[in-house]
Amino acid sequence: MTRLLGAVWHERGGRTGFGLVLAVLLLALIGPWIAADPNKIEVQIRFSAPSLIHLLGTDNLGRDLFARVAFGTRSALTIACVVVALSMAGGICLGVIAALSGRVVDRMVIALLDIISAFPVYILIFALVALYGTGLGKLIVVISLAFLPQFARVARSQALTLKHRPFIEAALLMGLSRPLIILRHIVPNIIGPMIVLASMNVPVVITIEAAMSFIGLGVQPPATSLGTLIRDGYVFLDQSWWPIAGSAAVLAVATLGCTLLGEALRDAVDPKLRGRL
Amino acid sequence: MKDLFAFLWRRGLAGGLTVIGAVVLLFGLIQFVPGDLASVLYGPRATPELRAALAERMGLDRSVPEQLWLFLSSALRGDFGTNVISGRPILQEIADVLPNTLTLAFAALGLSLLLGVPLGALGAVRPGSLADRVLGVFSVVLITTPSFVVAIMLLLVFSLALNWLPVAGAGAAGDPLDQLLHLILPTTALALGWIGYLARLIRAALLEVLAEQHVRTLRAYGVPEWRILMIYAMRPALIPVVAILGVALGDLIGSALFAEIIFARPGIGTLSYNAVASRNFAVVQAATVIIVLVYVTANISVDIFSGLLDPRFRRATAGDQP
Questions:
Q1: In this structure, what DSSP letter does residue B35 have?
Q2: Residue A224 has pLDDT above 60, yes or no
């Protein structure tokens, strides 16, 4: 673990990513504690520029943008982590089952993954939100489904290489139950690449959630996310740039930091994955 | 040659089956929605007459497999029914705006290739140089900045602040110059990320090829460095770029939806978005099927092209991939 962190730290990109992610994490974790009330309306100071009292200025209703961005960052990161964890868990289940079952099941799983991937990610999410309606829970499930195929494919190919390794065959011969073998011997051995894939997908999910919230099909007010904040700012763009500047900058820093950190993690875990993940 | 035809046939068949599978999946997903089909498709406008017509069309009194067959066959015939709001056939409405969306997506793809490949080659000439490092940082920033944020920024700077380019729409019909002017900002917004991505991809691929034995031999024979780079190394290095074009197009069509909404540009995105806002799922469903068709076709074409470029690829997709 320390060796891994050392390898991440060794690269310039890894250090930068680590720093940016840390800053965004601090904003999400501590920001809401030290910030003002994000919903306190003070119309007389609407559209004020950044100051010591309002670090990122105020929005169209005079609400403190620093507080709103802090809460928005918190929900963006939470959603991204939950989505990635869900698709990773689902992908591992599906991929490992496909790899260890017979040819028929394997073929069926692959066909299902191919069919899901026949929809471009944004289109699938868009169609499902149109069908099932907006809402935080639904949004999370829908984005997780769209990301499931890549996790399942990597899990499957990793599990296939393990299938005929002596220690797995030995465990089978010893009569250990299949679920036990999967949990004790397969999953720990494929988790590395899965975590790398997960970390590389976090910024993508953050972007998608923000985009969906931006067009009003994601997180619904009064809840905030970076996307809803950018939308609010976009509506009043002709009156002030400040409402959009803070949230867009934090979104860009978050995706940049997560990508750099994810890539450094990938190179540290296994340089051979460079082209494949 | 024989393996090429076998490859084409296999790839086409798999593509066709995938499209059918996607339509079946869509049917299945619609079945899970609580409430009756008419409310799902038409929203609050589901009058008794519309309900009866829909029940007739979709065979709602029949068994689920029969309904699936009706759904599948009408989707594959392109019969998506009538838009209950405008009263026009949905297929016609999609056909009207699809060229706008595809123009945008392909223009962005073209721009990404046009700028991404030379920039990547520039980085590969002198790895580790200042230019290479600047390009590296630049690429990552381009890749990670969400395209809808770029779209807003471009709109802000070039349309609202500088007033150089038009704000909204796709340009007047029959006026190519006006249409081109309207295309510049959304295309740039979509392409920037892929310029960065392709630059990185081509740089890495070129460096890999340049380290190979046959390049050393070429150098020993005194072949000029630019010829090695642009001709002998570029061809194999382009293979991964071609292979990713299908995915790129899918991503660009997806991002185009958001760019269209931001730039108020008529297209599949605005059509679907307005349909969602007015709870008119029938239109979204049809648009989704059409985009899946375009996307799968693009991926097949890319695979075929990859197969032509690199014979190893035909065999790679022949058997089971590990």
A1: S
A2: yes
A114: Cβ–Cβ under 8 A, 6 or more apart, which residues? Answer: A149, B14, B18, B21
Cα B19 to Cα B30: distance, rounded to the nearest angstrom: 17
pLDDT for B188-231, tens place per residue? 989 998 998 898 888 888 888 888 888 888 888 888 888 888 78
Asked if the bond preceding A32 is cis, omega within 30° of 0, the reply is no
CA B222 to chain A, closest CA, distance in angstroms equals 31
pLDDT confidence of residue A191:
86
Residue in B230, B213, B216 with CA at minimum distance from that of residue B125: B230
Of B33, B39, B63, the closest CA to residue B51 belongs to B39
pTM above 0.95, yes or no: no
Closest CA to B185 of B251, B104, B98, B255: B104
Q: Which of B146, B261, B272 lies at the smallest CB-CB distance from A210?
A: B146
pLDDT band, residue A84 (cuts 50/70/90): very high
Give the span between the Cα atoms of A220 and B143, in whole angstroms: 27
CA distance B146 to B208: 29
For residues B256 and B141, give the distance between their C-alpha atoms in angstroms, rounded to a whole number.
20
Span B57-105, pLDDT tens digits:
766 667 777 788 888 887 887 777 777 777 788 888 888 889 889 989 9
Task: Report the pLDDT value the prediction gives residue B105, as an integer from 0 to 100.
Answer: 92
Q: Which residues of A touch B (CB under 8 A)?
A: 13, 111, 114-116, 118-123, 126-132, 157, 160-161, 203, 207, 210-211, 214-215, 217, 230, 234, 237-238, 241, 244, 248, 251-252, 255-256, 259-260, 274-275
- Judged by CB atoms closer than 8 Å, whether chains meet at B144 and A275 is answered as no
Mean pLDDT value of segment A179-196:
84
pLDDT range class, residue A1, cuts 50, 70, 90 = low
Q: Which residues of chain B have pLDDT under 50?
A: 318-322
Is B140 in Cβ contact with A259 (below 8 Å)?
Answer: yes
Locate B64 and state its tokens: 């689920």
Contacts of B145 in chain A (CB under 8 A): 252, 255-256
Supply φ then ψ for residue A79, to 5 degrees: -60, -45
Q: How many other CB atoms sit within 10 Å of the CB of residue B1?
A: 5
- CA-based Rg of chain B, rounded to a whole angstrom? 24
Q: Which residues of B are less than 8 Å from A237 in CB distance?
A: 152, 156, 160
Contact assessment for residue B116 and residue B108, using Cβ atoms and an 8 Å cutoff: no
Nearest-Cα distance to chain A for B250, in Å, is 5
User: Has residue A101 got a pLDDT over 70?
Assistant: yes
- The DSSP letter of residue B82 is B
Mean pLDDT (whole number) for A140-151: 91
Q: Give the list of residues 6+ apart from residue A140 with CB closer than 8 angstroms, or none.
A: A79, A82, A83, A86
The mean pLDDT of chain B is 81
How would you label B306-319 residue by residue, b for 16+ Cβ within 10 Å and e otherwise? bbeebeebbeeeee
Per-residue model confidence (pLDDT) at position B313: 64
Residue A61 in contact with residue A71, Cβ under 8 Å?
A: no
Q: Give the residue on A whose Cα is nearest the Cα of B160.
A: A238
